[in-house]
Amino acid sequence: MVKVFRGRAQATPSEQRSATFTGTVWADPIMPATENVMVGNVFFSPGARTHWHTHDVGQVLNVLAGRGFVCREGEEPQEIRAGDVVWISANERHWHGAAQDSYMIHMAISIGKTNWAEQVADADYVQQGD
């Protein structure tokens, strides 16, 4: 099967995310859930980030603009910038988001179910993200 998705539909508004994110985050789905894969562009305002989460199969992040961090549980955050591509393995507990002083836009390709957990505490984020 081959499916062609024609980019973001003009009449489709961006979605503000809040239940599983901290800070102001907007998302534009660019491919609806298809065979357990979702693709979307996500805009993080400075300091905004995901909650802790995992993906049943994995996730790819393609950083399109700005600067941020990705952090696997138990490790130090890694800086990510425009042009970077990140692979997160299946069931790796992690978070990602913008730096305190920069927005970040990434394309997220999520494979399998996303399993959301608690938010990343402000104090932990500032300490880790500095």
How is this structure best described in words?
- The protein is 6% helix and 52% strand.
- The chain is mainly beta and 130 residues long.
- It has one domain: Sandwich (Jelly Rolls), CATH 2.60.120.10.
- Strand 7 (58-72) and strand 8 (78-81) form a beta hairpin.
- It is globular and about 45 Å long.
Topology:
Elements: E1 15-17, E2 21-22, E3 25-34, E4 37-44, E5 49-50, E6 53-55, E7 58-72, E8 78-81, E9 85-89, E10 94-98, E11 104-111, E12 114-116, H1 122-129
Antiparallel strand pairs: 1-3, 2-5, 3-4, 4-11, 6-12, 7-8, 7-9, 7-10, 7-11
Q: The CATH topology is what? A: Jelly Rolls
Total count of domains: 1
Q: In angstroms, what separates the terminal alpha carbons?
A: 46 Å
Strand tally, please? 12
Structural class: mainly beta
Mean pLDDT: 91
Topology order in helix (H) and strand (E) letters: EEEEEEEEEEEEH
CATH class: Mainly Beta
Known CATH architecture: Sandwich
Please work out how many helical segments DSSP would assign. Answer: 1
CATH superfamily: Jelly Rolls
Q: Are there runs of 5+ residues with pLDDT below 50, and where?
A: none
